[in-house]
Amino acid sequence: MLEKSRNNKQVDNYIAELPEEIQDITNALREIILDTSPNLIEEYKWSMPNYSQNGLVFYLQAAKKHVNLGFHKGIELVDKDIHNVLQGTGKAMRHIRILKMEDIHLDQLKPLLEAALEMNK
User: Fold this and answer.
1) Rounded to whole angstroms, how far apart are CA atoms 46 and 50?
2) For residue 120, what are the contacts with CB-CB under 8 A and spacing of at least 6?
3) Distance (Å, rounded) from C-alpha 50 to C-alpha 39?
4) Closest Cα partner for 83 from 40, 48, 115, 38?
5) 75-98 residue pLDDT tens
6) pLDDT (tens digit, 9 = 90+) per residue, 3-23?
7) What is the pTM of this model?
8) CATH-assigned architecture of domain 4-119
C-alpha cells in the first residue's frame, strides 16, 4: 500500500472525482509510479497528477474512457519501447493509453518507467 505521506491531497481529490473504473486504473498506475522510486514527488499541476525527481518525469491524464500514463521526455524513450506501447507525436512527450485494468502490463511499463527516471539523474 502507498505511504500516505507521499500522496498529494489534490491528486486524491482528482482521482475521487473520476468514474469508478477510471479511478481503479488511475490508482493502480499511481501506485506503480510511486513504487518505481522512493524519491518521486507527486504534484498536482496542469489539472492532473505529475511526478518529478530532478525534474518532471511522469503524468497521469484521465479521460472518460481511458487513462494516459505520460512521459515528459517520452521521445527519448522510443528506442527502449520494445513493445511499441508509446503513443503521441509531440516534440517531447509520449504516453501509454490504458483502457482497462487488463491493459496494465508491468513487464511493459516497468522498463520504461525506470529508463525515464534514469534520464533524470
Assistant:
1) 8
2) 53, 54, 55, 57, 73
3) 14
4) 115
5) 999 999 999 999 999 899 999 999
6) 446 889 999 999 999 999 999
7) 0.93
8) Alpha-Beta Complex (3.90)
Q: Give the 3-state secondary structure of the chain.
A: CCCHHHCCHHHHHHHHCCCHHHHHHHHHHHHHHHHHCCCCEEEEECCEEEEECCCEEEEEEECCCCEEEEECCHHHHHHHCCCCCCECCCCCCEEEEECCHHHCCHHHHHHHHHHHHHHCC
Distance CA 27, CA 15 (A): 8
> Residue 84 burial (CB < 10 Å; 0-12/13-18/19+)?
exposed
Half-sphere exposure at residue 70, Cβ-oriented, CA atoms within 13 angstroms: 19
Per-domain residue ranges of the chain: 4-119
Question: Closest Cα partner for 117 from 43, 61, 35, 46?
Answer: 35
The rounded distance, in Å, linking the Cα atoms of 48 and 61 is: 6
d(CA 86, CA 3): 29
